[in-house]
Amino acid sequence: MAFIVTDNCVKCKYTDCVEVCPVDCFYEGPNFLVINPDECIDCALCEPECPAQAIYSEDEVPAGQEQYIELNAELSEEWAANNITEKKDALPDAEEWDGVADKLQYLER
């Protein structure tokens, strides 16, 4: 079982979570982070660190966001060269996007 980055990370991309990950399983795209499910050890350290509350255990992903389970797996492979292990500034308008629903359409690959 892995942890999954979900909808509220899109256009926010807070990176507080990456610093606590003991296995460096976060990967970064232009406006979203993902967790590689094959690397995640299900330690749960990242979940409370996310200011946007966008990280869930795979079996607790909110209804309607199940597509993020496959998306994390797919994009972690696509973004394999973009492993992120240190905190960076969030996107400039992250506060405005935090809490906006249905942001999948804005995800940049």
From TrEMBL:
Requisite cofactors: [3Fe-4S] cluster; [4Fe-4S] cluster
Organism expressing this protein natively: Thalassolituus marinus
Entry function: Ferredoxins are iron-sulfur proteins that transfer electrons in a wide variety of metabolic reactions.
InterPro entries from the UniProt entry: 4Fe4S_Fe-S-bd, 4Fe4S_Fe_S_CS, 7Fe_ferredoxin, Fd_C, FdxA, RnfB_subfamily
Organism ancestry: Bacteria, Pseudomonadati, Pseudomonadota, Gammaproteobacteria, Oceanospirillales
Gene3D superfamilies, A to Z: 3.30.70.20
Domain 4Fe-4S ferredoxin-type: 1-30, 31-60
One Pfam family here: Fer4
Key words, A-Z: 3Fe-4S, 4Fe-4S, Electron transport, Iron, Iron-sulfur, Metal-binding, Repeat, Transport
Name of the protein in its database record: Ferredoxin
